[in-house]
Write a structure and sequence with these properties.
heterotrimer, A mainly alpha, B mainly alpha, C alpha/beta, B: mainly alpha, 2 domains, two-stranded antiparallel ribbon, 73% helix, globular, C: alpha/beta, Rossmann fold, eight-stranded mixed sheet, 43% helix
């Protein structure tokens, strides 16, 4: 039982990992991430990579929506910008892959700032709808700017190359995607240990009050948009290295809804929420496949109901969490932690 | 009449026709928003559900269209009632975004249910509108489009009148302008919420039948709702008149764009108008400007 | 950390990597089973393409049964391993990865163009699989870029060529308009189609692009009335909004003849449209279930399945035939089942007889079978009837 943690300095109070069990769990997680490709087959490595790409994108959206209170339903379009940028740079320039990936993120960030500009005048639902509109306009650009985007056929890539090593198989890509994900998530967690993160939270809680307190809200709102889009751009860049083809139909509106759902289900405004939410929402449809397999002797035509069931479960998860557990999975985890921390006493 | 002018007239008439359908769908958004301050994205899916209910009553149970249509509309209303009571009422006081996302999730559930019950193949509704064309002078109009136009304008007209003179309509307006005051005047505010959802969803279901009669039904026909959402934002979320004017205007603009620029420009221009409106008049052309206070 | 420990760490990592390499090898070998031949499938059993996916699955099962009753392919039993994708490319990829990591798969059926493009590079790298599929995209008809993929029929541009050839024979110099949806699918054959029309001396009119999800087509019909084409070729749709298009055009008294491409050609989707669909024509690379010309394979199908089978059924049947024929040729030569060998074997298919499912014997030099025939819908009979001979547009 841990009754409390005594902290002797502000630095200790701000630390990301405050208790020994936390450090142990983190070490286990890291060891697991390193060990994963050695123990699982291609399918599970594929899923792990997909989960991590979604983790990056969801974490970005969490910074914007969960921490700054600006809702975006155009996040998939920023992923698309990153994907197209990385694909184009990989095809047309000889620049090293990390540079291209960074450039993809930065371009997405620039587009994100542009889309975020109306957030000065509009917020809440209106902003969400403006971002939907922006994503449709970007979609049009992807189709019509043929010389760069390849039109409806999109762009196809050769396997990426990093430090002379070709990223051909999923297990190769894992070693690019995994460290980038860890880096990006750690970066996001650190953001909220300093001024910028606190400004975001102040804007979320009451933007007018934040302005009165001397926080330049336009600058911070745009910064938040830029950061979130940077994350989306990196995620999109990894996505295109992973799938090696991007078309205008690669990132539909559903993907934006999926990411927002991941943030909601995981828990808005906590870093772990974005991570867990992306993991959960990516894995549920896959696991449903096994459930349906399992039920197939009982239900006739089980394979035909899989897809509708997935659609229903996806919607029901969003509704269910919002109605019954608005703090998301992160809150459930907190509750479990509390239970063990004070055990044998009850909370 | 010279050829170009005739073509222009016909395109405009066709635009007005599809604009009326947009206006009718927009009306569903407005009714619900006005009373409960919820943007109900599931309107799109209730629209689709309306089409499928009509299909079931008319094709499978072979009811005549005048029997199936009211049943489909009632079905839409019933879904509205259940959703309001079961999901939206418990969310009272939550942030607008949360409620909005609830309706997004609900939309996904409805799509899944429709796919599970009716399958994913697109279907045609039984023909209940004659196919003979209508001519205004020389200008051609598709009869289905004309019927949709008349039905939509009549319904919107009825709503405008009801809102002015019917007790319930006045109660709704009162609730919209000040909930607390409405409460203290003895208006049954939760009742108003329910009524708004029922009427809104019923309207959407009716629009779905009209839409299905023109283009057939499929689980993805809900995308039409996004265009209607543009109408609502441009016209003003809480304005019936805005829905009517915005719907007709957007219908005409889309028809012009599609004829003179090409079909691929319809969606960027539609959403361009949306962003422009949001930046210049965030509360829409006819909407109420709310002042935020600390 | 001391120098020694770092080195030992590296050694440890190396050893682990080697061990997994070995393990990975053994797991692959473990499920390599010489007694069976597995056809994997990312099948769209639900979603917008559900009607086709269900038929394709039935056909592949039936063909597997026919082959197994004859003793299999080189002594191996044929088995299907497939899952539903709902016609979503990312699900298709997930299904592919799952199935290939659980089964020893050398033959595959993929559902969409996007999936084919995504997985093509992986297929080329792994060099284990030959893949057919539901996509007829022109882009896939490139043996250099997509070495492990084939199209079980003409690609969309070749379909346009066949239709245009038919038009040029029926009415030389006729005016043609294309109506296409604003999607990758819809835009696929526009440019090569227009070029082909000009080469055949046809009067190429407008290309009308309809926005995705558009319901009302009045404005497009008005454009048609201005253009007054003799023929309209629709592409990028399955059914909607074709009926509305044709009904409004008829109301306006247009004499235009309407045509479609393969996925619009199933006669069952036109049955509930009725008279409006009467006279609708299109390109069909295979025979219909009810065709009366002698065909042993069709007889067999009618014996196995008492009721009408959709066009997707024929497509799935041909796909399975080509996949298994290629595998048979490789195995009979005593070669290994690699992607390259399978494709090379497929390319040796010359004057292949499908038992009448494709009306003429064909050869597969490239990635496609550039053969097809124009059929016309008769509302009275609820049937598609042939109006042309088999047309071969191959090199």
């Amino acid at each position: 039982m841990i009754i409390g943690t005594a902290k002797e300095s502000y630095r200790a109070d701000e630390a990301l990992l405050t208790t020994t069990p936390q450090r142990i769990w983190m070490a286990i997680l890291m060891a697991g991430l390193v060990a994963l490709p050695f123990f699982f087959n291609t399918y599970w490595i594929y899923l792990a990579c997909l989960v991590m790409i979604n983790v990056i994108a969801a974490t970005g959206l969490n910074v914007l929506t969960g921490f700054t209170g600006l809702v975006s339903l155009g996040h998939a379009a920023f992923m698309a910008v990153g994907a197209y940028a990385v694909a184009w740079l990989e095809k047309n320039t000889g620049l090293p892959l990390p540079v291209n990936l960074l450039a993809g993120g930065l371009l997405a960030a620039a587009v994100g700032v542009l889309v975020g500009l109306p957030s000065l005048r509009i917020k809440g639902l209106y902003l969400a709808i403006a971002t939907i509109a922006a994503s449709f306009i970007l979609h049009f650009i992807f189709i019509d700017w043929r010389s760069v985007t390849g039109g409806t056929a999109g762009l196809t890539l050769e396997p990426g190359r990093i430090f002379g090593f070709q990223l051909v198989e999923y297990r190769h890509l894992y070693w690019l995607i995994m460290p980038v994900t860890v880096l990006m998530v750690t970066g996001a967690a650190n953001l909220f240990r300093n001024r910028i993160g606190r400004a975001f939270i102040a804007i979320r809680d009451r933007d007018i009050s934040a302005e009165v307190l001397g926080i330049p809200i336009l600058r911070y709102k745009l910064l938040s948009f830029g950061l979130a889009s940077f994350y989306a751009g990196i995620a999109g860049g990894l996505w295109v290295l992973f799938f090696r083809v991007v078309t205008p139909e690669s990132f539909p509106l559903v993907t934006s809804i999926f990411l927002l759902a991941a943030v909601i289900v995981g828990g808005m405004g906590t870093i772990i929420g974005g991570v867990i939410g992306a993991l959960f929402m990516t894995m549920v449809p896959e696991l449903l496949r096994y459930v349906v397999d399992f039920l197939s002797p009982v239900i006739p035509n089980a394979s035909l109901i899989l897809s509708p069931v997935r659609t229903i479960v996806f919607g029901a998860l969003i509704v269910g969490f919002l109605v019954f557990e608005p703090q998301g999975l992160a809150e459930i985890i907190q509750r479990i932690r509390r239970f063990f921390r004070v055990w044998p006493f009850r909370t | 009449m010279n050829d170009d002018l005739l073509f222009f007239t016909e395109v405009t008439l066709a635009g007005l026709g599809s604009g009326a359908l947009l206006a009718l769908t927009a009306l569903a958004f407005v009714l619900i928003y006005k009373a409960t301050r919820v943007i109900n994205l599931a309107v799109s899916e209730i629209l689709m559900l309306g089409g499928y209910l009509f299909f079931t009553f008319a094709a499978s149970l072979s009811l005549p269209w005048w029997g199936a249509l009211p049943l489909a509309i009632l079905g839409g209303g019933a879904v509205g009632a259940i959703v309001e009571r079961g999901l939206i009422r418990p969310m009272l006081g939550e942030s607008a975004i949360s409620v909005f996302m609830v309706t997004v999730g609900l939309g996904s559930v409805l799509v899944g249910l429709v796919e599970a019950f009716w399958g994913t193949d697109p279907k045609s509704l039984p023909n209940f509108i004659a196919n003979t064309p209508v001519f205004f002078g020389e200008a051609y109009v598709s009869r289905k489009i004309l019927v949709a136009f008349i039905a939509a304008t009549v319904v919107i007209g009825i709503f405008l009148i009801l809102f002015r003179f019917w007790r319930g309509g006045v109660a709704l307006r009162a609730t919209a302008s000040d909930q607390a005051a409405a409460y203290s005047c003895g208006i049954n505010v939760p009742g108003v919420f329910s009524i708004a959802w029922i009427i809104g969803c019923a309207t959407a279901a009716g629009a779905g039948v009209l839409l299905g009669a023109i283009g057939g039904i499929s689980p993805v026909m809900g995308v039409f709702g996004l265009s209607a959402l543009v109408v609502v934002i441009v016209g003003g979320l809480d304005s019936l008149l805005g829905a009517l004017v915005g719907g007709l205007a957007l219908g005409v603009i889309q028809a012009w764009v599609s004829s003179f620029l090409g079909g691929e420009y319809v969606s960027p221009i539609t959403f361009g108008i949306l962003i422009l409106t949001l930046v210049i008049r965030p509360y829409g052309l006819f909407g109420t400007h709310e002042i935020e206070r600390l | 950390m001391s120098q020694v420990s770092r080195r030992s760490l590296l050694q440890l990592m190396g050893a682990t990597a080697m061990a997994t390499g070995v393990l990975g090898g053994t797991t692959l070998a473990a499920f390599a089973d010489d007694s069976e031949l597995v056809i994997g499938g990312s099948l769209p059993l639900t979603g917008v393409f559900g009607f086709a996916g269900v038929a394709i699955e039935k056909a592949m099962q039936d063909y597997a049964k026919i082959i197994n009753d004859q003793g299999g392919i080189a002594g191996r039993k044929v088995r299907l391993a497939y899952e539903d994708t709902a016609y979503k490319p990312d699900t298709s990829v997930a299904v592919f990865n799952k199935l290939t990591s659980q089964n020893d798969i050398h033959l595959y059926y993929g559902d969409s163009t996007a999936f084919a493009k995504t997985i093509s590079l992986e297929l080329a790298r792994a060099d284990r699989i030959l893949m057919g599929g539901a996509s007829f995209a022109t882009e896939l008809n490139d043996p250099v870029k997509h070495p492990n993929i084939f199209i079980p029929g003409p690609d969309y541009s070749e379909m346009f060529s066949i239709l245009l050839e038919h038009i040029a024979r029926e009415k030389p110099g006729a005016k043609v308009v294309f109506v296409c949806s604003d999607s990758e699918f819809g835009r696929d054959p526009i440019e090569p189609g227009a070029a082909r029309a000009k080469a055949l001396g046809l009067d190429m009119g407008d290309v009308i692009i309809t926005p995705p999800g558009s319901v009302d087509v009045s404005t497009e019909v008005l454009k048609l009335r201005r253009a007054r084409p003799d023929y309209v070729i629709f592409h990028g749709y399955i059914k909607a909004p074709l009926p509305e298009f044709m009904s409004q055009a008829k109301q306006l008294g247009l004499e235009t003849k309407f045509m479609g491409t393969f996925w619009s050609m199933d006669s069952s989707i036109w049955d509930d449209v009725g008279d409006v669909a009467d006279g609708f024509m299109g390109i069909m690379p295979y025979r219909y279930y009810y065709d009366t010309e002698p065909a042993p394979m069709l007889d067999k199908i009618r014996e196995m399945r008492g009721e009408y089978q959709a066009t997707g059924y024929m497509q799935g049947m041909i796909s399975a035939m080509i996949l298994l024929e290629s595998a048979k040729r490789v195995l009979e030569d005593g070669q290994e089942l690699t992607g390259k060998n399978l494709k090379a074997a497929m390319n040796t298919i010359k004057d292949f007889d499908t038992g009448g499912i494709i009306g003429v014997p064909f050869s597969m030099a490239g990635n496609s079978i550039p053969v097809g025939r124009v059929y016309q819908y008769s509302a009275a009979e609820k049937k598609m009837n042939p109006v042309s001979d088999w047309i071969n547009v191959g090199g």
